[in-house]
# Entry
Amino acid sequence: MQLATQLRLLLLCAPLAAADTRLLSLLSEHCGACHAGAQAQGGLSFNSVESLQKGGKHGPARDRIVPHLTGEMTPRMPLGAQLPPAVIAEIKAEVAKLPVHSAATDDHWTWLRQLPAKAAAPSVANKQWPRNPIDNFILAKLEKQNLTPAPEAGRRTLLRRLYFGLIGLPPTPEETRSFLNDPDPLAYEKQIDKLLADPRYGERWGRHWLDLVRYAESDGFAIDGERPAAWRYRDYVIRAFNADKPYDLFVQEHIAGDEYRGKKTTTPADRLIAQGFLRFAPWEADANSKKQLRQDFLNDITGTVGSVFLGLTTGCAQCHDHKYDPIKHRDYYRLQAFFAGTAIADPPLPFDAAENPKEMKRQQRFHEDEAEAAQLELDRLRESLKQQYMAMYKVGADDPKTKQFLGKLNTKNLFFLDQDLPLAKEPEWRQPIKTYFDTRDKMQRSQELARRHQALAYTVKDVAPPAAPEVPDTFILAGGDLNAKGEKVEPGFPFENKPAEIPFAGGSNGRRLALAEWIASDQNPFTARVIVNRLWQRHFGEGIVRTPSDFGRNGEPPTHPELLDFLATQLIEKNWSLKAIHKLILTSAAYRQASVHPDQQKYAAADPANRLLWRMNWQRLDAEVLRDSILAVSGRLNPKTGGPPVLFNVPEDVAQGFEFFKWFPSPDDEQRRRSVYQIQRRSVILPMSETFDAPNLSTSCARRQSTIVAPQALTLLNGELTRAEAEHFAQRLAAAADPINEAFWLALSRPPAAHERQAAEPLKNNLASLAAVLFNLNEFLYVE
Amino acid sequence: MNRRQWIYQSAFGLSSAALGQLLAAENAKRGPHHPPKADACIFLGMLGGVSQIDTFDPKPKLAELNGKIMDWSKEKKTDQPNLFAKPRKFVASPFQFQKYGRCGREVSELLPHTAQCVDDLAIVRSVQSDNGNHPAAVFQMNTGFIIPGNPSMGAWVTYGLGSANKNLPAFVAMPDFRSIPFSGAQQWGSGYLPAEYQGTVLRAAAEPIRDLASPKTLDANHIAAERQALRLLNSAYTESRPDNPDLQARIDSYELAYRMQLEVPRVLSIDAEPDSVKEAYGLNDPITASFGRRCLMARKLVEAGVRFVEIFTPSQSWDAHGDIRKNHEKNARETDKPIAALLKDLKQRGMLNKTLVVYMGEFGRTPDTPADQATPGRDHNTRCQSMWFAGGGVQGGSIVGTTDEIGHKAVENVYHMHDVHATILHLMGLNDMRLTYYFAGRNRRLTDLGGRQIKEILS
# Structure
């Protein structure tokens, strides 16, 4: 309230041109609380006729003011109120006197629509600092503001930064010591090469990608049915990152692997599995309206393809023209039309050599046999219960009561058992019924495990005539409403008016192929920029565009557009190799800066968000990295890679009480594998992950939150993981000559300082307590 | 000031001198939009969908029509196509209605205790929603949208208002663990809002908040020694790195966690409550004990400054397809007495005028049942449900909305689920159009494009 008053005063003090005084004073009186000053809502300020004409995010305001006041445009203004008709009429009359404003040129979109230009690295005064062209772009901007970059971080800090950044785990004491003692001037570069070649790189970067593609292994909604083959996509992504699969190929496989006609090396399995991407949205398996279900599926794809690959909020044009960016309502449905013929599919697909086919087969057989044995046992128990029932009630096998009783034995959630099967309370029935349901659990668990080892693909296919009916028509839907069909549209690329040319694609219809080739192209101005920005974002904590899935006007403008373009052109030049871009970024002086600047206070005042990159940003460990690091330090991380998902132990309030499935945790050693292998089940999320800001699995997550709340402290102080692993960490320390020293090396890659040794000394006889304390340290959770 | 600090401060934070000034500025932006009528809300989620016809919206016409076949051929959209494809027959309410209170409101014999509080209730008989499937409908009730991924109303309220007791979570959810709502924690989740706005689940077990208690294997000396070492090590590291305020925030979060360890059990201890209170809430009766305990905890939490409390019946508990009488009798029996006790208790303590209580399900129920069904039930109905508000800013004894003569559809003063949300926000001092969060390209709201306040029931 106070703020609004201040702004109003500020506004009233602003000089007004005499002729427009009446309009501005009306607007200031009724709209000035929000639309004035530097913080004006939507960027629209009524401070002056110029600012009104220039408008905000929605463009010039002249023709929008009155419709928003009358409610013809939403939201009706002022928010939560209505102006008296007389006032609206007066404003309308005044607005009519304003000259019609010609459309402003949109510099941002002009830049964005152009292909990335390979600018020469700008020249800088300080010739010593730059290590590669990235640094010229950073330094040129700093020098313009008379700022200097922070000094280089210490070697230990750099090593931890590289390890957490590239593989998501801390270095071991041996690795740290060997790096610190390496006299080679290229020791740092060697570490980069080593870590980029480490298979754990794929596990770390694969997880980033899984965030983006809303990867989940269940449908969500009521049934939340498992997607038993979805994990093959997770492994595909990890393999792709490790093999440095060219990003353009990676994109093509995601959208139209089945129709791929390029020359790059790929496998039939990869091409189908990657398409799982198109299906990861929630899926209401028991939806009342199958048409709506299909429309929801198409809407998700249309929005997700736009945000993940193009950095555009295409989803905003589902109901109307995009309010900020030049994406028309029509374009949304033209984009959607590429998927009009797409249907979900789960075809058999043999495991690739990389997927360990023999072991998969063996496991599948084993669990099938187990399930079969349990089934036989279950049939026997069922028969015995039936006999017991028939004897008790003196009824025959064909009696409806007997049949009803057998039906009740199918109860899924045992909560309903009492009401469905009152017998279950009787003493002589309790044990047999319990045995029956335990056996059923065993059977279900084995069936689930068998299904997860089946050679199936979670993918899509396209229909094409003559083998299948015509591709369904796509209509513009007013307000996104399936019942409000408008004009019929053909597939077309955003920003192009003509229909897309659809290539021939054998038994498929080729539409997705057309889109895939348009996106994964060096002629697409968005694709390369968006992915290099994502790499930058993970290394620096913030992207060059800080809204990594929204490059439009409503997002944040790039801090260094020429640098972004430079990186994008590098990516294309290097045959879309992500590892090449990693290396470029990681060898820059900008990346090697310390996280604190000698002139910190002054710099922080001048550029509090560090947009100019005068130091390195701090990053808190992601939920998965934190958990994996605790296991690594305790020495218990199970390094096994790939395969069906791990089901973790959860408190009963998280995984019980579901009507449609039961939760069967994996064996203990499996549970100690890296977090990326944990099942991503929409209705059961590991509480620790949730507390530490893991994504919610429903929509694409481009940037995780990094919150600080008391439940995190409780989890790390008292949680099962900390306390169990602290015991094992302690056992590791027990043999050491100097356990405190060893503990610091393991957890923090350094020896304790004198004051730290002193602080740790009282826990010398309780090494598990010391270990728990170390897991809770700020230094353990933050990367400098 | 960066967002994290703000978030931290608002949800569980303490004031730190360095941040104080900035915090004040951010708070000014994030506080209520107008003076609130209610400081807290207790939301009673009747999962499965309560039948309006058998509780608050009597339909004598159905007694005439009972057993007659209903012609649905003209009805284009039905909530459950497979059920409506077959002939259906009308079902009269098996429950008697009677007038209660000064307002003379009719309430059925299912809810004898709630009926005693009817002068405090504002009943809306005309709330509609968008989807007749439980999971989608429960999502809409809790998050405004029928698809997953959106913040729950409690998350929105805490995001808007922050916490009033920094030693307790601002938003608490108490599901029934016999059968938790579909999609579990997403129903009280924070969606795309930062994680601290998610509801904290209070469990009925000995440890009400997960990981609240220190490990039992550690004695008090041990715990003290650990805390001391952690303090020393963390503060030395943090003092030498003043450039990162998150480090201090983390230290503060530990101090807060220690205080929560003391405060939460104290607030939630109901052993010390007088027998009369326990009796009133039904804690001495196994049928009412579960819901009653949670109602009593809700009162204590609100008393201690918690903003938003949600209590849910078991998932689909009110879903009376098979037998309306048996199902609704069971569920009413479990909830009616505790709810009335809660209302009376709040009132007696002078808290009701600053606390909003909301009672609703994900949808209402149909006036008919499949014709071939032996025991009459009622199916899903998104065209009307009866729900009520009570407490701060609500005009007790008021009523709004009219349904057609068979209770199939709201016909006058029709409101939408969004309007219920807009009204809750309004009463808590928030304008639903202005409570926004920028995500995936636009400013998002609990009420999507906006709801209308249900003005008829405001005091």
Notes: The mean pLDDT of chain B is 88. Residues 323 and 375 of chain B are 6 Å apart (CA to CA). DSSP finds 13 helices and 21 strands in chain B.
